[in-house]
Every structure is written in structure tokens, then in C-alpha cells.
From TrEMBL:
Residues 1-142, 150-271 form the UspA domain. InterPro entries: Rossmann-like_a/b/a_fold, Universal_stress_UspA, UspA. This is Nucleotide-binding universal stress protein, UspA family. Signal peptide: none annotated. Belongs to the universal stress protein A family. PANTHER family: STRESS RESPONSE PROTEIN NHAX (PTHR46268), UNIVERSAL STRESS PROTEIN UP12 (PTHR46268:SF6). It comes from the Bacteria. The lineage of its organism: Bacteria, Pseudomonadati, Bacteroidota, Cytophagia, Cytophagales.
Amino acid sequence: MKKLLVPTDFSAYADAALDFARQLAQKYDAEIYLTHVVLTPVNWTKLTKEQENLYPDTLEIIRKAKKELSLRLERLKEAGVRASEWLHFSDGKERLISYISAEKIDMVVMGSHGKYGFKAHVLGSNTYTVLRKAGIPVVVVKPSEGAFTFGKVVLATDFKEASGKAFQTLGDTIRFMGGTPELLYVNTPANFMENSQIKQLGEEFLQKFGLYPHEIHIYSAYNVERGIIQFAQEADVDAVALITHGKTDLQQLFSPSVTENLVTYLDKPVISLNVTAFDQ
């Protein structure tokens, strides 16, 4: 976990994510890649200087964006953090995934407005859809007073073998941030099992994929996201983590939409990893 990508729209929520990334970078000598997306009416990188002058409004937006990026980059360097900036021009065709791959980014850190949820803030739903395909951990944080602390982190899992490698990566990510992952299985009416069955399933899963000792919690709820939210509130955890399976069907137990809802309703950092993209 040496390269952290922080998308920003220069809001207080994005700055909270940047501050969180700064704390990680200072503690673990990581490098921050700060990026901002400018929506352009055409493919901006293909224009000549003369053609750019035909879009004065876009030029002004770019000028302001460069200024804001430079200010934040300077603060990071003053804090002793290695950092670089990337101004990304988008005409509707996202290139963020290729950038993540080319730079070998290890983790994405993003901010969110708790009241409106993730998709309504920072970079919008289109960019979040791209990040679903990144195949690396995505951490969503909200503004917090003082330093972020990661002690107890609940990692919701379905104990399916397909999640095994992603489970190991997510566990390593949690430990990188200073947390201790505790496992949560939400027992729902649609997929009900007795506790003894769940424990056996969990033990078999950990025998194959567990790199460290893990405590297993079983929580009964009407659906997965409700169970995760209620457990996180009752157990007073510092953060929530889960592995999604890249489905858009709301009936899928661990679809990316569950992550979006957790971000909306929880005042805690949410860490997710898409197992479908991770395996590609």
C-alpha cells in the first residue's frame, strides 16, 4: 500500500479524504496521487492551443482547478508527504481505470457527504461506476474531528470461495490502516442458515484463506445492508468493510449498491473491494 489515489472536487468532503490519506502517507511512507476531473465538451487533449481558445469557460475552469490542485499539493509537501497531481479531462469517456493500472495504484481514498450519500457527491455516479471496476480497495470517509482511528473494523463476508483472495487483500488493507478486522455474517430470511452451519462455513473459509486469527460475528436481519448497519452501530466499530461482486441487481447480497447505502447511512469509513474486477 504505497500509492494512494485521492480524487477531489475541492470540497470539504474531498479534503477530509485527502487528510485521511495524508495521515496514512505520513505513517507508512506512502505517496499520494491527487486527481481532479474536468468535464470538457470535446476531447481536450486533442485540441491545439488555438482550438482551446474557442472554449473560454472551460479554460477558466481548468485554470481554477490547477490552482486548487497546486494549493493542496503544496500543503502535502509541507507535511513531508510525497505527492503528485493529475488533472484529468473527460468528455464522457472515463480514463481513470487506465491511469490506476498504469500507475499501479494500491488504494483509492474518497470523500462523501453523509446526508446525500456517495453518488451525489465528490465525482458523481459515473466515476463511481468506473471505480467499481478498479479492482483495488476503495475507502470512503466523511469529515471527522481529530485524527482518524482504525481499531475495530467489521468485515462483512458471505464466506464464498470466490471472495477468498479479495478477502485476503481487504484484510491486509485494514491492517495497513491500523485496524483489526472482525468478520460479520448477516443471516437473512432469504438465505437463512442455522448458526452452527454458518460457523462451520466460516471456519472452512478461514482455513483456506485466513492469514490471521479472526473473530466471527453472526447477526440476523431482514437484509444484508440493514444487518451491517445495525451491527456497526451496536458494536461501535470504527469502520465497515465488505467485498462486492459487481452485480447491479439489488437482490444480490453484496452488490455495489450495498456499499452506496452503507456510505449514506453510516457515519463511519466504508472500505470496499469489487471481487469481480479484482480477479480480472
